[in-house]
Each structure stands twice: as C-alpha cells, then as structure tokens.
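Query form — protein Transposase IS4-like domain-containing protein

QUESTION: What is the three-dimensional structure of this chain?
INPUT:
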Amino acid sequence: MSEQLDVEINLDRKKHAKKFLKPAKKGEAKSKKQSTTDPDSGWFHKGEHKEVFAYNAQVACDKHGWALAYTVEAGNIHDSQAFPALFAKLEPFSPEFIIADSGYKTPSIAKFLLDKGITPVFPYTRPRGKKDFLRPKDFIYDEHFDCYLCPENRVLTYRTTTREGYREYKSNPKICKNLSLVSDLY
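ANSWER: The structure tokens for Transposase IS4-like domain-containing protein are given below.
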C-alpha cells in the first residue's frame, strides 16, 4: 500500500511542477526488546505503567458477531500494519463495508478499501489542538485555483505535498502578520 502512496504523491508533485521525493533514508535500526523465552512476542504497552511481552489478535466479524478471519501478530505491531494480512483472509467473503476501530483509520487503508469498491467506516476523531484556534473547516477551498481562503479572505497557495501525502498551503506572512486572527493560528 505504501508503494502506491509514493507513486500518487510523486504524481501530485509532478502536477504542481515539484521535484519527485527521493526515497526516505532508512535510519539506524532501533534496538528492540526481545523475550528470551518467546522471541516471536512483541513488547506491548498494556496501560500507562504496565508493559509486557504479548501477542495481538486481529479478528474480523460479520454483523452477527461470528468470526470470519483472524491473525495473530506480535504485541508491538500496530493495527494498521496487521491489516493487509487480515484483509487477505477476509477478501473471499466480498465485504461491501468494513467497520473498523481507530487503529485502522489511516489514509492508505481508506484508499485501499475504496479502490476495491469497499466502503470503510471509521470512528469520528475529535479535532486536536487548542479550543479557540482555527480549524480546517474555517478555510474555504477554491478548486479552480487550487488554493484556500482564510476567514480574513487571504489566499493560501499550494506549497508542497509531504512524504505522508498531505498537501501544504501557506499564506504570505508579510500580508497576514497584522490581521486580527493571526493570534488564533499559533
């Protein structure tokens, strides 16, 4: 799924006359905790102060609660990383909808499901950040000019598409520094 995201990011950058992103550099491998008695298990954060070596079971059920597919992963594997193996076992059932918890709510999983003609249903995520700050819904997108308008009617132009696939739009700080809402941005 990530290779497809890289291709689409570079297509978007090309459309905006930006250079392709170079492949991400692999950082130094982190030392992982490994159990001496069960090396296949993973270091799992069970709560704020409790950590154990464990396994994580991913289970897909039908609307009646019957298990259709499952995978067992090391405890340190995130739900979104375990999804491809679980989906491969679930695909023969030809689901129309997949209802999943927030661990699976990633852009790559959503796009993957939509491309397969499956409707993803994820939980609502509350906006993060300070309460009185401006939110994305406060800005208006102009599809024709590919820009945003802020509440003060100033233009935010496209700057780049990040490695994660997000488009960044920025305003001219010289124009905006004296506006009344500028304190709500930081």
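ADDITIONAL NOTE: Residues 2-15 form the longest helix (14 residues).
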